[in-house]
Design goal:
With about 350 residues, the protein is α+β, with helices and mostly antiparallel strands. The protein contains eight helices and 17 strands. A hairpin with a 4-residue loop joins strand 7 and strand 8. It binds FE2/S2 (inorganic) cluster and fe (ii) ion. FE2/S2 (inorganic) cluster (FES) binds next to loops. The site of fe (ii) ion (FE2) has 4 residues, from loops.
Amino acid sequence: MATTSDPRTLPFTWYSDEELLRRERRRIFARSWQYGGRADQVAEPGSFLATDAGGIPLLVTRGSDGVLRAFLNVCRHRGAILTEGCGRRETIQCHYHAWTYGLDGSLRAAPRSDREAEFDKEALSLLPASVGTWGPFLFVNPDPAAEPLADWLGDLPAILARDLDLDAVSFHSRVDFGSNANWKVVTENFLECYHCPTAHPDFSAVVDVHPDRYVLEPHPTFSSQHCESRAGGEHGQFHLLYPNTGINVFPGPANLSIGPIVPTTPARTERYLDYFFAPDADDAWLTEFFAFDEQVGREDTALVESVQRGMAAGVLEQGRLLLNAEPLIAAFQGWVADQLTG
Ligand code: FES
Ligand SMILES: [Fe+2]
């Protein structure tokens, strides 16, 4: 089992096993904080947002009482996904048999239930989950008794604030993408820049990826990477908030992207990134920024899909980390193993 002083990776079978993914959903995604969208999507009383926590469907609402709440987005009748998208509504009605819930999660109406000898509406409220905000970001946790979001974030907001003022950026756009690789392969690829000189020539031309100046920093609930532009003076930060929220701040004009790394099957991962920039960001710079980011993304997709195929070949039981270059992978794998076995 990988620990921070153990150079062995997790067993490669952990990257293709259905049963292990079910265990990850129960023991990791069902009880940790994950990026779920933007706070402004549920700013107004009477608004809702369908979102997801590692494949667990969630519904965030802001009631007419102004209270932000989260629920499992699964109908108590026969388990349909209750609703999709976001918007404003007084109630949420299931598209299957029209069971209707208040934004506070209570079951208000179930057609023909009055013909039942016994039907306890009270016992059929939506199951609660947890929701919290950090600046413009909305975080969700399927666990109704989750520890406060602020405790999970720890020092991360203060570290981010060194290089970026969250009040000075606003939402620009969302980009969806995915890859044919296990979510841990995708996450681990994000946790080292050992591959940067080989695999990201454009990135490495802009960012100083020398091991003495590209800083890797483990924390209890997140991992941080700090870098500087080769031109000097401009700082960048890349964070993984455990288990699966990536946060990127590239050196240069104010920018941030954030989003979850979501397993859909053991060998498929879906992602999106919400991009934030200064409201007066230059259009030509934005075009260049997105082209650069897409290029790095394409390079990473090829890498993780290659790793997935190599692991799935079944010829190696596990790999061997370089602890000086990949300590954040060792820390992440240790954390994952603790959650699954602890
Ligand atoms: S499954 Fe929702 S009303 Fe039947
Ligand atoms: Fe990469």
